[in-house]
User: Fold these one by one.
Assistant:
Number 1:
Amino acid sequence: MPGDGPVGRMLDKMGRHLNRPGHMHMMLNAPGHERLVTHIFVKDSPYLDSDAVFGVRNSLIVEFPKHPPGKAPDGREMKKPYYTAKYDFRLVPSAR
């Protein structure tokens, strides 16, 4: 359970909830660059202003427009509505 243990007790004592806004985790690798592990947040998601782990940054909030069934950007035929997102990641050259 997310509320078990010391973090759950601390959030409870602070009067804070355990919820996180909608988000997607990303891990990017490229030769000669540091690996990037991050996440992006859904723009209209609840809890953006009160994330339980304080991970939201304005630069990580992204619009996820909903599209009707049909041809997706990658050419697949989608039978149900789907969402897309656009975000530019930047990798830092490694010190090696």
Note: Helices lie at 5-13.
Number 2:
Amino acid sequence: MKKSFSSKCYETIREVPRGKVVTYKQVAERLGTKAYRAIGNSMHNNPHAPLVPCHRVIKNNGYIGGYSKGMKKKKELLIKEGIEIKKIS
């Protein structure tokens, strides 16, 4: 059975360890695509949180980016995992 694009995204993001972050671009590269926005859309509709830690995916420019539960929550989760926040937007 062929996996959906979103399922592949979730599997890749599940591999990101606590206290680490990856960029949308890195996730896309691991999936062999340049569909960075599609990665974001999949995460926005993530029905598997917290099993799929979408808060660990940030923008390529170092900003934390969006989060389905709000940027404040994303910032809290990252700080709780020991990530230093320098850029919020």
Note: The mean pLDDT is 90.
